[in-house]
Amino acid sequence: MKIATFNINGIKARTEALPEWLDAAAPDVVLLQEIKSQDADFPREVFEGRGYFVETHGQKGFNGVAILSKLPLEDVARGLPGDDTDEQARWIEATATGKTAVRLCGLYLPNGNPAPGPKFDYKLGWMDRMRARAAALLAEEVPVVLGGDYNVIPQAEDAARPEAWVEDALFRPESRAALRRIEYLGYTDAFRAREPRPGHYSFWDYQAGAWAKNNGIRIDHLLLSPQAADRLRAAGIDKAVRGGEKPSDHVPVWVELDA
Known about the structure:
This protein has 259 residues and is of the alpha+beta class. It has helices at residues 17-25, 44-48, 118-138, 173-183, 190-194, 226-229; strands at residues 2-7, 29-33, 53-57, 65-69, 73-78, 91-97, 101-108, 144-149, 188-189, 220-224, 232-237, 253-257.
C-alpha cells in the first residue's frame, strides 16, 4: 500500500498538477492539506474518475483536508477531538479497508507565527490535543498513519539554513518538543527511518529563489504506529514535483507498507 501526504496549497490552483502526479506516482491513498475549498466545491469527479474514493473536510478560502483512496473508506471522522469550539478544518480520519485495515489521519497542523503569541499558543494546544488522539489510537493496536503538513522542522538537518528559522514557530524548541512527545508515544518518522542523511526537504518558499537555491525545509511527515512501522518497506519525497508547472510550495512525501 502506497500512502502519500501532499499539501497542495489550493485545489483550484492544482487542478492540472495534482492529477498529473497521481497518474505518474499511482498512490493508493493520498492525504491532502490546504485544499482551500468547501466540501461542495471540491472537484470530486476528477479523482473519482481515477478510481479514488473521496472524503473532505473543507473550509472556504483556507485550511481544509481531504483523503483520496483507491480502497474503501470507513468510520470517517472530521475535526481533531478535544475542543468543540475549534472550527478550523485541519483533521480528518478514516479507515482504509484493504487486505490489512489502516487508520489514516490527515492533518494540517497550525503554523503558529508570530511566536510567541496567540497563534503560537493555539499551535501548541492543538499539538497537545493531537498527542491525546495519537495515544488513543495506539491503544486500538491497529496500523495507524498520521500524515500531513506538520509545520514543524524536527531537527537542524531538516533545514538548508537552520539559523534562519531559530525564532520561527516551525523551529522553536517548544514546537519540536511537542512533536517529540507525539513520537515518543511509539510513532516512527517513516522518512527518517529510511533516510538518516540531511539535505532532504518537502517545502520551498515561492519567495527569494528558494527552489533554485534548494533552500528548503522538511515539514511534511508520515508518522507510523508500531503496527504500521513493522510493515514499512520504503519511503521517499517526490522532490521533482516542485519543478513542474504551477507547483505547490510543498511536494508529496510517501511510504510503502506491506499489505
